[in-house]
Amino acid sequence: MMEDIPLVLCRSMQPGDANISGNVHGGTILKMIEEAGMIVGTRHCNVGGSDESGSLCVLARVERTDFLLPMYVGELAHLVAKVTFCSSHSVEVKVKVFAENVLTGARRMTNSATLWYVPLKSKGVVADVPPMVLPSGENDAAGRERYERQKKERRDINEVSPCLRDDWAMLLDMPSQGHEPHTVGYAQSTLIHLVGVQDCGLQGIATGGFTMKLMDEVAGICAVRHCHTNVVTASMDATNFHRSINKGNILHFRSRPIFTSNKSLMIQVVVLVEERNRSREAVNPSSVFCACTAFFTYVSLDSQKKTIPVPTLKLTTPSDHDRFEEGRLRYEMQKKMRITSQM
Q: Is residue 216 annotated as a catalytic residue, yes or no?
């Protein structure tokens, strides 16, 4: 078996990789680091193997990752990943990230990380890891010490400070908690999103396609919570965009069921925009306005992808009844429009 050769990945940083200030997102860099580690670890675990299915490395642990220097749009990211230790069922990979200014050729190291991977067969069975071939004169004592240390830390995770495992940290705060199934409160859902460069057109304004995609997503979550089945979008009513959404805004997508027929569910979606005032002296740090609203209709499907009845929406407040009546009128209007268009 030959000594492991470092893997080098290169990628140009684009506007969609960065925040509104032009700094590449930390999440973008972390994703590239994990990808490089996965590839070099998987390559090591399959070298010389006769099993055609092979094994794929999955991430088990990331040691502390330091962001030494920022990376900017237009720079070339170089990731150098190398297998540095192997136990019988895990692989240690070290990754270093460098930023290159393609105009001057100058390079600087921006990140370094250590990751641990476990190789899995196609059925989720942990695979054996081939031993490393170390350069002459080297031994794996230091790697064995790192392995035992991370193994102990993973084993002792339940003994961390209680403040890290309180109700806030460990319990999923779902809107459905405390509400009866098939009520409005049980299914209502919220998504929060910071508008980035990748969400906008050339003028720094969020595109309608991006906004409608997340509107459908939050409506879909609401539909799944109500039906507990596979659901698909059947229609979206005409939607007006009242005000533009700018880069750096915080969006709150809210959805709630308002009407059910025998085989359809109508969901109201509201998009609220939180405009942040970036001035430290600002009296009001933010203002909120409604950018658009829409009504989505979903149908429920069985395992054969055939429509099935939708659970009846349970109305518990006068407002629920008012919205249900509005939804019923919209539903009847939609039926008339479909009949008219077919004539």
A: yes
